[in-house]
Amino acid sequence: SGKTPVCLYLAMQHGIFAANYPLVEADLQGTELPAALRPFRRKLFGLTIEPQRLQLIRARRHSGRQYAQADQCRREVARAEELFALNRLPVLDTTAISVEEIATRIIAALGLRE
Fold first, then answer.
1. Does the residue 100 lie in any domain?
2. What are 45-56's pLDDT values in tens digits?
3. For the range 80-83, what are the long-range contacts, defined as Cβ-Cβ under 8 Å and sequence gap of 24 or more?
4. What is the C-alpha to C-alpha distance for residues 89 and 81, in angstroms, rounded to an integer?
5. Number of domains making up the chain
């Protein structure tokens, strides 16, 4: 899904300190951002992906586990997108774009220097 490569690219190519926070099941239960993220609300950017693509990625790594099932991926993506919307976070669909393009769009959307 590209979270870690995007963070590395932002750091190494643009000198931007970035981190990824993978949302886990407990994070997706409520409507508030996880407590660890709240202090950084203005710096957050949500990355999403089409559930089918996420399922393919997970199936390669964790075949046969619930984590890689299509319905699990659909549910997680839908809840993450809902959480992003409820918290008014900018969101980027990373399904079919490169790490470089994701980074460029994040820089532009957040008004960071290029």
1. yes
2. 999 999 999 999
3. 80/23, 80/28, 80/46, 80/48, 81/46, 81/48, 83/23, 83/27, 83/28, 83/31, 83/33, 83/46
4. 9
5. 1
46-48 and 91-93: which strand pairing? parallel
- How far apart, in Å, are the Cα atoms of 104 and each of 9, 38, 44, 77? 10, 24, 15, 23
Residue 41 in domain: yes
- pLDDT at position 63, please? 74
Name the amino acid, one letter, at 24.
Answer: V
The answer to whether residue 114 is domain-embedded is no
For the chain, the distance separating the N- and C-terminal CA atoms, rounded to the nearest angstrom, is 23
* Backbone φ, ψ for residue 91 (5° rounding): -130, 145
Q: What angle do CA 102, 103, 108 make, to 5 degrees?
A: 100
Q: What is the pTM of this model?
A: 0.88
